[in-house]
Write a structure and sequence with these properties.
Helix content is 63%, strand content 4%. With 339 residues, the protein is mostly helical. It folds into 4 domains: 72 residues; 31 residues, no CATH class; 116 residues, no CATH class; 50 residues. The protein has a two-stranded antiparallel ribbon with strand order 1-2. It has a two-stranded antiparallel sheet with strand order 3-4. Strand 3 and strand 4 form a beta hairpin. Helix 4 packs antiparallel against helix 11. The longest helix has 68 residues. The N and C termini lie far apart (161 Å). The relative contact order is 0.07.
Length: 339
């Protein structure tokens, strides 16, 4: 009887465990089904949103194509000119560019009248004389034959040089600032390679060449920028600083009016009073009347700093200094011809 009860108890316990396991399995299956349904619902919701977005973009794209096909341009932008423009430039017109990222159309006013484009006044830039090809080019340009007086020949040759110098500037020195920066970058690259390969003599030679090139270009660039610089401020005779262009002009006038004075009524010179003072002796007069020598003319020209303002023809003293070995004799002859 004891064995029978024990066996029955074990069977009942095993049955309970099986039922509990089945119950847990049913719950797990229900949880899995619920999770599956939730995942399907989420996926369906995402699909619906994607489909809705796609539909919106398809509608927008279709509308965009429709707008492009039926696009109507309206000329809202206008160009205003005064009557003087209309009188002097009969063929003037407005050229409207594509709008790009702007909300208005950019416009350029054009005219085919060639006389509107005036050539800028010639100016000799000191950087030209520092270029390696300068002397050879000037020597060939200066051989032009001109017939006439010595001063006329000199002035004519200087006029002919202007077009030569303009072309020379375009060919060699049109972008001097960028060339100077590129030369510096090239020098830095070579020095970097030299630091990585200190025993390689090739980079030593390249460094010397790069330093020479950079110094020449940097000096030319500095001279160019110095000549291009303009007066942006000045102090007047009272010590006040001015930045307005009109005020700067007035400050110049005030200075020279104070320096040179104003017109007043004067009496005639009394020769008796002059003769009582120290006057030039006969030797002094002879010295003043002596012919001007080549050495004096050269010294006078070379005493003028090269950065000073040029003559009305655009040539500064720097031009004569850079070119004296070629044009010096003719400059001397022209000045002697005047005296």
């Amino acid at each position: 009887m004891l064995v029978k009860r024990t066996t029955t108890y074990i069977l009942e316990e095993a049955k309970k465990e099986v039922e509990a396991a089945n119950k847990n399995a049913d719950e797990a299956r229900k949880d899995a089904e619920a999770a599956k349904k939730e995942a399907e619902a989420t996926r369906n919701e995402v699909d619906e949103k994607i489909a809705a977005n796609n539909k919106i973009w398809e509608e927008k794209f279709a509308q965009l194509l429709k707008d492009i096909a039926t696009r109507v341009y309206s000329r809202l932008d206008r160009v205003l000119i005064n009557g003087e423009w209309g009188d002097q430039m009969k063929d003037i017109y407005a050229h409207f560019l594509p709008e790009g990222n702007f909300d208005h159309t950019p416009c350029i006013v054009k005219s085919s009248i060639q006389s509107m484009h005036h050539m800028k006044p010639f100016k000799y830039y000191n950087m030209w004389g520092k270029h390696s090809h300068y002397i050879n080019n000037l020597s060939s340009w200066w051989k032009t034959y001109v017939k006439g007086t010595k001063m006329f020949c000199l002035v004519s040759k200087l006029k002919q040089l202007k077009s030569k110098f303009r072309n020379y500037n375009k060919e060699y020195l049109c972008d001097i600032e960028n060339s100077s920066m590129m030369a510096l970058k090239n020098l830095e690259y070579i020095q970097t390679q030299l630091a990585l390969n200190p025993r390689d003599t090739y980079w030593y030679d390249k460094e010397i060449e790069a330093i020479t090139e950079y110094k020449e270009l940097q000096e030319a660039c500095t001279n160019f920028l110095r000549q291009k610089a303009k007066v942006i401020s000045i102090k007047d005779i009272n010590g006040l600083q001015h930045y307005d262009p009109q005020k700067i002009q007035e400050a110049f006038l005030q200075y020279y009016i104070q320096l040179l004075g104003t017109e007043i009524n004067t009496v005639s010179v009394n020769e008796k009073i002059i003769r009582t003072c120290t006057v030039c002796s006969a030797d002094h007069v002879f010295t003043l009347l002596k012919p001007v020598t080549y050495k004096e003319i050269k010294a006078s020209i070379f005493s003028i700093p090269g950065h000073k303002a040029p003559d009305p023809d655009g040539y500064s003293s720097a031009f004569y200094k850079d070119s004296w070995s070629i044009i010096g004799d003719e400059v001397y002859a022209a000045i002697q011809d005047v005296f």
